[in-house]
Design a protein that fits this description.
Structural class: alpha+beta
Radius of gyration: 19 Å
Oligomer: single chain
Number of domains: 2
CATH architecture of the largest domain: 2-Layer Sandwich
Distance between the termini: 37 Å
CATH class of the largest domain: Alpha Beta
Number of strands: 10
Shape: globular
Largest sheet: 6 strands, mixed
Strand content: 25-35%
Helix content: 25-40%
CATH topology of the largest domain: Ribosomal Protein S5, domain 2
Length: 288
């Protein structure tokens, strides 16, 4: 079998939950969610290449926070492809991860890295399958993986496996800020005051994105702030720097602020970085 010999790269974009409603809980303990999800131009980067033996290298500002053993989602994604397509995946591969996003931060870093790995290896190994099939294969690795494989604006329901694309969603100038503290998702869910909350309003129920967001929630935000109060400081910093809207993404601790322009976002990110040297702060734009 012939394999691609040229290294292949894939962006692993930050995943932002613009809204996240917790609507129930299944008997197996998984929470039911409804979330409007977008992806940023900012992200990690995965590069794969045919090699004499399998290898995994992590570089970048957050490389030291990434496990290198079989518990890493990147390696689990590689191994899941090998199990599902043994005849197509015999070629050993080198995988390099440039880790630009903070870990355990509510923006899908590990899941997006794994999804990018699957997309890249599908091309390298020329695996005859589509994104939907990859999503079904990826779901056991994590509920965020199918949406990260899709990589475009969508509404996710269930535990994250029911995906409805959102067409013509505008690009949003944005600043992502993390206080430098990892928040454990299970702890946030345990701290929830209510697990049976109202669903998302229809996207056409408001004139603008900001008007719609004002009617929505992140049900995990109060619980996360009760665990890590610095999240409230991040939100205050975003609002104080001119964000038209600010909210926590996912289970935290990363928060986003939406700005009127890319210039305003870049200015705000620089200001926040200057005032809070230990925080992660970056301007970006969401992908359409």
């Amino acid at each position: 079998m012939t394999f691609n010999s040229v290294p292949l790269a894939e962006l692993a974009p930050a995943k932002i939950n613009l809204a996240l409603h917790v609507t129930g809980r299944r008997a197996d303990g998984y929470h039911l969610l409804e979330s409007l999800v977008v992806f940023a131009e900012l992200g990690d980067r995965i590069t794969v290449a045919a090699s004499a033996e399998d290898s995994f290298l992590v570089v970048g500002p957050f490389a030291g926070d990434v496990p290198l053993d079989s518990g890493n989602l990147v390696l689990r994604a590689r191994d899941a492809l090998r199990s599902a397509f043994p005849e197509s995946t015999t070629q050993p591969v080198s995988i390099a991860l440039e880790k630009k996003l903070p870990v355990a931060s509510g923006i899908g870093g590990g899941s997006s890295d794994a999804a990018a790995t699957m997309r890249a290896l599908k091309r390298l190994w020329r695996i005859p399958t589509d994104v939907a099939a990859l999503g079904r294969l990826a779901l056991p690795l994590g509920a965020d993986l199918p949406m990260c494989l899709a990589g475009h604006p969508l509404v996710a329901r269930g535990i994250g496996e029911e995906l409805d694309p959102v067409s013509h969603f505008p690009a949003l100038p944005m600043v992502l800020v993390n206080p430098g503290i990892a928040v454990e998702t299970p702890k946030v869910f345990r701290a929830l005051a209510s697990r049976d909350n109202s669903a998302l309003a229809p996207l056409d129920s408001a004139d603008t994105v900001l008007d719609w967001l004002a009617m929505s929630r992140n049900d995990l935000e109060p619980a996360a702030i009760s665990i890590e109060p610095s999240i409230a400081e991040v939100l205050a910093a975003l609002r104080g720097s001119g964000a038209a809207f600010a909210r926590m993404s996912g289970s935290g601790a990363t928060c986003f602020g939406i700005f009127d322009s890319a210039t305003a976002a870049a200015r705000a990110a620089a200001t926040i970085a200057n005032e809070h040297a230990k925080w992660f702060s970056a301007a970006t734009t969401t992908r359409t």
